[in-house]
Amino acid sequence: MSPWLKVTKMRSYPKGCCRFVLAGTMVLATLIGCAKTPEAERSEMIPTPAVTYRFEDVPIPRSLVIEEKESFIYESEAIKTGILVYGGKAKVRELAHFFKENMAIHGWELVSNFERNDALLTFNKPGWGCVITILPTGMERAKVEVRVGPVESQ
After folding, report:
1. Is residue 111 part of a domain?
2. Which end of the chain has less Cβ packing within 10 Å, N or C?
3. CB neighbours (10 Å) of residue 147?
4. Per-residue pLDDT tens for 96-144?
5. What CATH number did the domain enclosing 102 receive?
6. Which pairing describes strands 141-150 and 119-125: parallel, antiparallel, or unpaired?
7. Percent of all residues in the chain with a pLDDT value above 70, rounded to a whole number
8. If we measure between CA atoms, which residue out of 15, 35, 16, 36 comes closest to residue 24?
9. Is residue 35 part of a domain?
10. Can you name the residues that pair with 118 across neighbouring β-strands?
């Protein structure tokens, strides 16, 4: 028998074996994909790199996704201001903690903090103000509104 025939010769398996192997592979892939370690959950709260529709000095957790239809940015040569709305899987308390820690890293000073079931955080930096509103929207989901604009220097 030539080497070509050896390569192309099909091996026969018991009837139904392929379905069993395929089903087992799909179950295994699902289990691996759904498993979440504490490290994976923490990585969702790491700030994302700058993307187009945002303020570069306002960190946003990876677990949040921009809601472009609700967001607005006005930008000219002299000013950039707007409201960015995000939604995603996150708890209000964890988001408030994230912003209090990470805004300081970007030069923002916490001016006020109101937390209960929702949160309202106000930050300032020279010439700029930022108000972050965090609202619960369901089971461990939240909506975040980030408002940034110039403030009058005193």
Report:
1. yes
2. C
3. 16
4. 999 999 999 999 999 999 999 999 999 999 999 999 999 999 888 999 9
5. 3.30.310
6. unpaired
7. 64
8. 16
9. no
10. none
**Residue bearing tokens 């979440």:** 36
Task: Tell me whether residue 70 is in a domain.
Answer: yes
Helix extents (H) in 2-57? 3-8, 17-34, 38-43
Q: In the numeric block, which tokens belong to residue 106?
A: 């970007």
DSSP run (H or E) holding 129 = strand 128-138
Q: What is the pTM of this model?
A: 0.66
132 with 99: CB under 8 angstroms? yes
* φ, ψ at 48 (rounded to 5°): -85, 155
Residue 101 belongs to domain spanning? 48-150
Element (H, E) at 96: helix 92-105
In a domain, 2, yes or no: no
The count of domains in the chain is 1
| 101 membership: H or E segment, kind and range | helix 92-105
Give the model's confidence band at 75: pLDDT under 50 very low, under 70 low, under 90 confident, else very high. confident
